[in-house]
C-alpha cells in the first residue's frame, strides 16, 4: 500500500477535513467571479450543449466543427469588417471627390438599397447563381428566373431610393429657398430704408 | 491571467474609443435583443413541432435522428386536424427564419465591440460566458445557414440536414438560454433608459449618442451620426419586410404565389396537376414499365405471413368506394400548395380489406429505390382519419407521374414527404 501510494508532499499536505472546515461558501464568488446560481446555469446549459454535440459530431467530426468555427469567423472576421470598411470608404471617397454634397444624409439613400440587395443575395445566392444542380430535375422548376428577379428587385430598390432622395432634396431646397427668401426680403427692406435715408429718394429693391 | 496581459488594452478594437458609431449602445442592442427574444422561441418551438410531425417515435423508418435520446422527451402522436396544421407550422418556421436574418445581422453588428473586450478573460465565470457566446453565435449562424441552404436544395452542409439542423438547434438553444439568463436584467434596464416612442420621434439632427456610462456598448468617442435610431430600426424592418414580401407567397399560395420572386417554390403552374412538386418521377428513378398496366398494390397484414396478401390493380382500386378530400401539400422546406381535391380510396377501407379493421400502424412503401422517404409508417390516427386516402386522381384528372401515378397516399396535416408517391404496398399492423 505504502509502495503503491507513496506519501508525496502533495498528498501529505491535503487534508479533507481541514479543507472542509476552512471552505467558506461566501468566498466562492470572489474566486469564481459570479454567484453559484451563475455556475449552475452554465453547467446545466453546457451539459445540454454537450449532449447534443455528442449526437451531432458523429455525423461529420471534421466538417461540423469547421462549420461552427467558420460561421463565427465568416461573420465576425469577414462579413462585418467587409461591410463596415465598404461603408466608411464610400463616405470618405465621396466626401473627398465632392466637398459640396447635399445637406441631407445622402449616404442612407445609397447604403440602404445596397444593404437590402446584399441581404437578398446573401440568403438566395444558391438560387441566383444556379448552384443546386438537381433543382430542375427534382422540382420541374427553372433556376433561370432567380438572377433576373434579384436584379429587378435591386433596380427597383435603387429607383425607389433615388426618388426618395429627389423628393427630400426638393423639399429641403424649397425650405432653404423659403428661408433664404425671408432673409433676403428682410435684408432688402433694411437696405431700402437705409438708402432712402442716405439718398433721400426712392430706390429699387 | 491579469499578470500575463497588460492592464490597458492594446491599440485597435480592444479600446472602446475604436468604436465610433454614435447610435451603437445598450438601448439599440436591447431593441434587437427583444425582437429575437420573442421570435427565437417561436422558431425553436415550430422546429421541434416539425420533428414531432414525422411521428419519429412510431418507427425507426420515420426517425431521421435516431440518436435523439432525451431530446425527444416531448414527442406525441401528431394530430390530423386542422388539415392546415403542418402547413402553418412550417410556413411560420421558414418564413420567420428568413425574416430574422436582418434582425440577427443588426444585433450582431451592435454587439461587436464586446468581442474585443479587455481583458479577454477576467474570471472563470467570464470565461464560461465567453464560451457560451461561441455556442450562441456559432449555433445561430450554423442553424440559419443549414436551414437557408436546405430550402434551396443546395446540400453543401457537412452531413444529412435533419441531424445537423436538429442537434445544432439544441446546441444553439443552450447558448441562447445562458445569454437570456445573463442579459435579461441589462436588457430591461436599457429599454427603460429611453422612451421608444421618443426615439421614433427623434430625427437625425436631434440624435445624440447614449452616454458612455450607459454600458460598454455606448461610444466614448462618438463620430457624427449618419443615421438616427429610428432610421436603423426602419432599415432592419425594411429588410425583414422585403424578404417576407418576396418569399411568403410560396407558403400562402393563392393569388399571392407569384409575389414569391425570391423563394424556391414561387411562381404559378397551371392545369389540374398545376401545383408544386417536391420530387419528380424522373429524379426518383421511377420507370414507366413499373407504373403501367402491370402495376399492383399489395395489401399486407403484419405478422400474418400465413395469410396471402390482397393484390389489387388500379382498376380494382377504382371499383372501390371513392372519396374526395380537399388537402394541401406542405413541405418541410416551408412551401406549400393550396388545398387540392384528391379522390381515391380511404386508408381505413384498405385496412379492412387487408383484414386489420383496427390498425395500430401501417408501413407504406414506394416504388422509389433508396431515398430517405421511399417508405413511411403511419399512425392509427392517420390511417383512420376519413380524409386519409390512397389517392388515384387529383382535381378531377388522373394523377400525373410527378404527382405519384398510379397511386399516392395523401394525409391531412402531415409533412409532405409522408404523402408517399408511387405506392407499391401497404402493410397494416393490428
Unreliable sequence segments of chain A: 1-6, 197-205
Helical fraction of chain B equals 25-40%
List SSEs of chain B in N-to-C order: HHHHHHHHEEHEEHEEHEEEE
Content-based structural category of chain A: mainly alpha
The fraction of residues in strands of chain A falls at under 5%
Residue-averaged pLDDT of chain A: 82
Number of helices of chain B: 11
Q: Report how far apart the termini of chain A are.
A: 116 Å
> How would you sum up the major sheet of chain B?
5 strands, mixed
In terms of DSSP E residues, the strand content of chain B is 5-15%
| Count of folded domains of chain B | 2
How many strands appear in the DSSP assignment of chain B? 10
Give the proportion of residues in helices of chain A. Answer: over 70%
- Helix and strand run of chain A: HHHHHHHH
Keywords:
heterodimer; A: 205 residues; 2 domains; 8 helices; 0% strand; disordered N terminus; B: alpha+beta; Sulfite Oxidase, Chain A, domain 2; five-stranded antiparallel sheet; 10 strands; 38% helix; 11% strand
Describe the structure.
The complex is a heterodimer of chains A (205) and B (430). Chain A has 205 residues and is mostly helical. Chain A folds into two domains: 58-101; 105-205. In chain A, 76% of the residues lie in helices and 0% in strands. Chain A is built from eight helices and no strands. Chain A has helices at 9-13, 16-22, 28-32, 36-56, 63-97, 107-128, 135-139, 144-199. The N and C termini of chain A lie far apart (116 Å). The model of chain B has no long low-confidence stretch (mean pLDDT 93). In chain B, the strands form two sheets. Chain B has a five-stranded mixed β-sheet with strand order 2-1-10-5-6. Chain B folds into two domains: 16-245, no CATH class; 288-429, Oxidoreductase, molybdopterin-binding domain (Sulfite Oxidase, Chain A, domain 2, Alpha-Beta Complex). Chain B is elongated. Chain B has helices spanning 26-52, 85-110, 124-151, 161-193, 196-200, 229-245, 249-252, 288-291, 314-319, 347-353, 380-384, and strands spanning 297-301, 310-312, 323-327, 340-346, 361-366, 375-379, 389-394, 397-398, 408-410, 423-429. Chain B is α+β, with helices and mostly antiparallel strands and 430 residues long. Classes of the chains: A mainly alpha (205), B alpha+beta (430). Chains A and B meet through helix 4, helix 5, helix 6, helix 7 and helix 8 of A and helix 2, helix 3, helix 4 and helix 6 of B.
